[in-house]
Amino acid sequence: MLDIRPIILINGILLSFLGVAMLLPAMVDLAVGHPDWKVFFAAACTTLFAGGGLALTNRGYRGGLSVQQAFLLTTSAWVFSTAFAALPFMFSEFKLSYTDAFFEAMSGLTTTGSTVMSGLDTAPPGILMWRALLQWLGGIGIIVMAIAVLPMLQVGGMQLFRLESSETSDKILPRATQVVGSIALVYVSFSLICALCYRLAGMSTFEAVAHAMTTIATGGFSTSDQSVGHFESAFVDYTAVVFMILGSLPFLLYWQAVRGNAKPLLQDSQVRWFFMFAIGFVSVMTLYQINTGVHEGWMALRYALFNIVSIMTGTGYATTDYGLWGPFAVMMFFCVMFVGGCAGSTSCGIKIFRFQIMYSALTMQIRRMVHPNGVFSAKYNGRVISEDITASVMSFFFVFFVCFTVLAFLLSSLGLDLLTSLSAAGTAVANVGPGLGDIIGPSGTFAPLPDTAKWLLSLGMLLGRLELFTVLVLFLPNFWRA
After folding, report:
1. Closest CA to 396 of 231, 128, 160, 238
2. Which pTM was predicted?
């Protein structure tokens, strides 16, 4: 039978950390005299009690994790953390139902950025800090998962990014542990620098800190219903663009640069492709705005740059309702939301490296058709990639769009219109945030959706954040018999 003791132990430790994190918004509310500090304090005690109990009852366990245990741990950690992170949303002055609270917490921890909450401009600071903190914690959690767990599990081609040539967890995990501490320092440093830049751009200290957390995490939660558009500042927009991009590049390359080797960051093909995609999308949308008279000159570039980067990186900030720009713009943003950033970043979506591998594989097949006797190999970053990696990536594309299609169909069956169903499914699985249309577009929220739709979208966010296979494998009978 599967030994769940290490899974319970680590979940207990994570819940204990989450409980401690709840004390920060409690102190923020206490500092301004808002009664919701009691809510956060009670939620912290409850979470610490549950987490501490789970950890203490399994503290004697000594041993590593099997691949089977790692799959179960990864999914259960996100689900249990979300279940407890929802408590403050339920009992704060917003008094969300548990469905809405779970949706909001899942959106936060997966750095999706979809929300059911409105009235943020007058909300107590504690709940705003909690939303930002959830995304910040989710961002660093995603980086750790991408470095230490997914390569070991060989999920969706992530085995390309193993830290060592050995595939065994007993050699990978110690190396990953050494790297994670350094990357955490980079993550914290970026957050502080981003907060300082926002402060210089005109935000208050609280707004700067909250937005820095959600920008580096490419999450998108804001302190205003109007998102970043509330500030109406070009300086704020460009600051956000810079740090959204920084959050979407591989943090391992930052670690190498800090150690004195910046060459990989400058020469990595994934980074080059990321900028190629971004520049192409921004250029097309800028020209479209000018041609249709939506915006002119530098204003067209500013709106295109901010909103394309926001959607492509999965951050989900908005400075305007781009859904009103016309059918072409709607279709463009719908396609852009699937792209995502780089592997090993806080970003989401399909990821740039998978487009590279797909392009390389398709090019190889065409060459073989033209030159049947030739010998060709798919390559990534100048290295030949094995057939199993190519197969993993192709499988990911297939499963990604199957999940998207099934989710969109289920949402449509609940009575949602076609645009809302498609964009909600896309934004959930790609972890982007806002959808398209009057209901869930940049100017709306997910609150009007039925509860069943919110639970389906929560599952979609979990699937997208954990790279699909990590969750889906748990539904296979063979997994439990292994």
Report:
1. 160
2. 0.93
